[in-house]
Amino acid sequence: MAEEPHRYRAPAQALHWLTALAVVSGVLFAIAMLNVSPGPQQNRFFDLHRSFGASVLALTGVRLLWRLAVAPPPMVAGIPLWQERAARVTHAALYILLFAVPLVGWAGTSAFGAPIPVFGLFGLPMILDKDKALADVLLPLHGALALTLCALVLLHIAAAVHHHFIRKDGTLRRMLPKV
User: pTM of the predicted model, to two decimals?
Assistant: First the structure.
């Protein structure tokens, strides 16, 4: 087993795992809202999906501010250059999509004319005027971006599993609390 890697600090770890939880929750509620009949239950799923989307946007903003203020630890030694580059590109794409997916969803929902309550605590303002034609473009774009995000998340998970079980290099442990 490799020596103890440089770890991410606790706030970065917490933001990472809270973001992961919010993304998974948003995806699960998206699946649910698209697979139930119209009515009160579907409306609750839509509201929860939008709430978790707002959470992803807020958490990603905080994560980016943290990352700008506190440099991440260096990568584990011995990672091939192509994997290091792939990790950097994938992380950049994840950040872009973690912003783009909720922002396009917010824009599409605004254009659709639907409110965006956040866990029943407050509502997000409409960022576009009601425009069904625009909503018909933005909401499918939101879905396509979300599928791309899901694919990258699965790649991210696969890479972490590969590093943990195949390379045994400590990469995954960098993002886990020390126990």
Answer: 0.94
